[in-house]
Amino acid sequence: MLQPSGLPDNLRNLDRTLVMGVLNVTPDSFSDGGRFNDPDIATNHALQMIKDGADIIDIGGESTRPGSERISVQAELDRVLPVISALADSGVAISIDTMRVEVAQAAVAAGACMVNDVSGGKSDPEMLGYVASLNTPYILMHWRGPSNIMNTLTDYQDVVADVTNEISKQVEVAVAAGIARERIAIDPGIGFAKTVDQNWPILKHLDVLEELGLPILMGASRKKFLGELLVKDGVPRNSDERESATTAISTLMAARGLWAVRVHDVKSSSDAIAVVDRIAKTP
Ligand code: PMM
């Protein structure tokens, strides 16, 4: 099973798909926005996710939902740092979900052990150079532009080939900036500059992305394409009722041997991965 180098020891030896629990310390993320504004509530929720089976907690302070506007660097720092400090003290593996180098720097200084950059280094020109100075994993997601315009950036000749080629080119940019290829995990960016229908071929033809030979993280949890799939009487399924569909994707991703899934409801995906893992290890 491919994994990025630079992981903490306890995660390196697990030999199964990892579960990254989502902690959005934002007022406006599409699924959990507003629930974890208070640092104590956010910290307790993260600790509960760890009990439920999360291997990594991915902390984000800036919503990337379609249409969202940027916040200030200071506001992002103020949201994430108290939670990172509290969790790092408890020995939790933390990933910082940010497109900004200042936030990545402060988060790593406070104890984060990997950087999850949904822009893959395209948003902040300083990001890749900074990450090159670390030894941590770097999650490089497919990104075509900021959230307020990404729904207009969905022209593809062939979404699977184009996403794969664009990720491959950006990996080369990251490597040229000094990041060891072994440290990079890639992510096709479900819902980012993709129409609802464009997400399905990416999941169906994962073998194309796998040909890049890099560990893959999948972030499909509760996203709009699942709500649209489960539409009833013209009404898409609510984001907090997309859990079984999310678990189905986690199960399929684990069966393919992906490195990690990024999910809101840790327990259901973690249980599903335990089943897949048990079957895989049965002689
Ligand atoms: N999706 C969101 C935020 N961060 N990071 C990675 N690597 N992959 C994703 O798919 C991803 C991400 C947006 O969804 P959220 O509101 O659930 O955080």
Which features characterize this protein?
8 strands, binds pterin-6-yl-methyl-monophosphate
Protein architecture, described:
It is a single chain. The protein has 283 residues and is of the alpha/beta class. It has eleven helices and eight strands. An eight-stranded parallel sheet has the order 6-5-4-3-2-1-8-7. Strand 5 (138-141), helix 6 (159-176) and strand 6 (184-187) form a beta-alpha-beta unit. Helix 2 (39-51) crosses helix 3, helix 3 (73-89) runs parallel beside helix 4 (101-110) and helix 10 (243-256) packs parallel to helix 11 (266-280). The radius of gyration is 17 Å and the shape is globular. The relative contact order is 0.14. The model has no long low-confidence stretch (mean pLDDT 95). Pterin-6-yl-methyl-monophosphate (PMM) binds next to strand 1 and strand 5.
List the ligand species: pterin-6-yl-methyl-monophosphate
Alpha-carbon Rg, integer: 17 Å
User: Which sheet architecture does the biggest sheet show?
Assistant: 8 strands, parallel
How does the helix and strand content classify structurally?
alpha/beta
Shape designation: globular
What is the averaged pLDDT score? 95
Side-by-side strand order of the widest sheet:
6-5-4-3-2-1-8-7
